[in-house]
Specification:
With about 800 residues, the chain is mainly α. It folds into 3 domains: about 135-365, Clc chloride channel; about 390-475 and about 485-630, Clc chloride channel; about 650-805, Roll (CBS-domain). The chain is about 50% helix and about 5% strand. It is built from 29 helices and 11 strands. The strands form 4 sheets. Strands 3-5-6 form a 3-stranded mixed β-sheet. It has a 3-stranded mixed β-sheet with strand order 4-7-8. A hairpin with a 7-residue loop joins strand 5 (about 690-695) and strand 6. It is elongated and about 105 Å long.
Length: about 800
Amino acid sequence: MAMWQGAMDNRGFQQGSFNSFQSSSSDEDLMDIPETAMDFSMRDDVPPLDGDIEEDKSYNGGGIGASNRMMDFLEEPIPGVGTYDDFNTIDWVREKSRDRDRHREITNKSKESTWALIHSVSDAFSGWLLMLLIGLLSGSLAALIDISAHWMTDLKEGVCTGGIWFNHEHCCWNSKNVTFEDRDKCPEWNSWSQLIISTDEGAFAYIVNYFMYVLWALLFAFLAVSLVKVFAPYACGSGIPEIKTILSGFIIRGYLGKWTLMIKTITLVLAVSSGLSLGKEGPLVHVACCCGNILCHCFNKYRKNEAKRREVLSAAAAAGVSVAFGAPIGGVLFSLEEVSYYFPLKTLWRSFFAALVAAFTLRSINPFGNSRLVLFYVEFHTPWHLFELVPFILLGIFGGLWGALFIRTNIAWCRKRKTTQLGKYPVVEVLVVTAITAVLAFPNEYTRMSTSELISELFNDCGLLDSSKLCDYENRFNTSKAGELPDRPAGVGVYNAMWQLALTLILKIVITIFTFGMKIPSGLFIPSMAVGAITGRLLGVGMEQLAYYHHDWAIFNSWCSQGADCITPGLYAMVGAAACLGGVTRMTVSLVVIMFELTGGLEYIVPLMAAAMTSKWVADALGREGIYDAHIHLNGYPFLEAKEEFAHKTLAMDVMKPRRNDPLLTVLTQDSMTVEDVETIISETTYSGFPVVVSRESQRLVGFVLRRDLIISIENARKKQDGVVSTSIIYFTEHSPPMPPYTPPTLKLRNILDLSPFTVTDLTPMEIVVDIFRKLGLRQCLVTHNGRLLGIITKKDVLKHIAQMANQDPDSILFN
């Protein structure tokens, strides 16, 4: 039988010595930026250990503490016990049990005095207060990001002489020398060619504007990638794959810390303003979760309990989507459907409250000046017809195909980045992609504008006063119903816009593959929606012209008469956007709700549902993983997907460690091992915990003790309990027997022993074991036969086994 390995590996301790309590793994190891050097002393995802425990002192088993007081380890809590190392999984069962004990103690004390009653009420109210603070902070930061990104995006094209802090739109709002038709052209707004060579006409002026556009884009991108590389490597990417992993119980210190929040907020503005094919919506979820994690430190209830903190992070994720799309209900459903691992009913209510407060805060600040929460809010008034479900389903098929294609190509490129020299030069990669994007984007007005503005333009339902090329129709009518325009023949502007949009579609499809995953904040929601919106608008205009010129066809004559408003191209753009976003992320319910909250109408839910479901079916047929799950597996995070079924007929004995003919399982006995014996086992192994048995002969299970708790308890005893030496006996029993005179004092460690570790028999089917790990969030499970300990199954053993059953390399999917 072999020593059990895998998930019980402890990254913080090397063989032969007890180094620091902090993991030796660094942020750069995870994010693949090897040349970045950082000080992670400011990490704050996990509360620091007590000051009595020196993190930089090597543990060599020697020395007796100066204190003469005897410490009763059964009564007094030991500082640091119960915390977790970096890149380890929390024990959900233990954390929930702790919270129940804490709540029970507060409830019992509340009957003793008025002050205790007040404390009990404040403890119950603290969760709602925390949600309020998260909503206020998330909404404020989202508004700051929106305003800053809008201004800096316009800065690439010119500056407002009436006030440098105004973006193009606000600059011309304040102008008194502008007409409605030319509302985007005012004397106060000057392009760079006007400022540099005093003219906006001619080839040289065009070259100056072109050069300045590319220069600003490169400057913004360089600042973004440099800040991320130097100060906060965890601020790159969208953050959603890591947040899903953290919510499943994994600990990544610093990922939701103060430095990450500050750098992510700044660099997100820079990345969006650079014109790269990325969005801010995904990173806003990361920003909101950072807010939630930091604010948790103000409340002991959440600061000291990792499971409770993850409930808060689920609510914060809902607030992030709420401010990203102006969709509070969609945010709650997104958190439930896409990111959360454990989502009790209480978390649902609090998520709803946090999303509400965040949306209200953003609406109060009004970053776009139009009383809307997003730039591309739109309202449609024309009903859709049953026949239109055919093109809507076609858009769903396109969205599924695009999603599957994008995931495969993007994962292949990211894997190449991780395994080749390319990953060593993140700054060069970002600058090259930015330069290519900017050079190709400037000549085309639809790629030059921000992606959010492009989506707003594509969603727009054309009116008589619209000056956009997409609304350049020939007006061949005399009268029309109030607020309704009939279908009209396309003008020259529409045809020009069509081929420009086709070129934009090609650029977005290709460049997004290389952009997502670079070492800058980058969301995928907006680029995916842009691809779908362009496709939908092209199809919508085609359907509109088909209905206009061939209204007597059988498919049109029953519902579309000449002079009627039959087809709404903007609706097709919206359905296409939903289809492509669903194909990439595999969202369904939350996606439909987000899109209908964007449009403010319930009438279009059926087209959105048809497109979203078709997209998911097509994409699932070509590959089961969404983009976030694919990136989780690419990085090897220990994430046990709850949506997948385990259908193989294997048993616990097939997976447990040790196997046949391997060395025996490393165990501790309850009353016969000395401090030196335990220290030797800890020094010679890298396991994260040890089963405790009655004796090596009987192998009757007593409990399970964590390596970290053992080290902290022994070192604490040496410092504070007089007389504890290497020959002192360690007892995990409730009472120690009388000792002869002149023997060293015993060390009682029963309080760090888990007396109810989860056990299964050796003949338990693995499908049940996998379900237990998923639903209880276990770190490990002990295997017994007739009450005798046989082995252990860890979370990583389960992940390896699932990979083996799927004919994958089991070692390639594990975090390193």
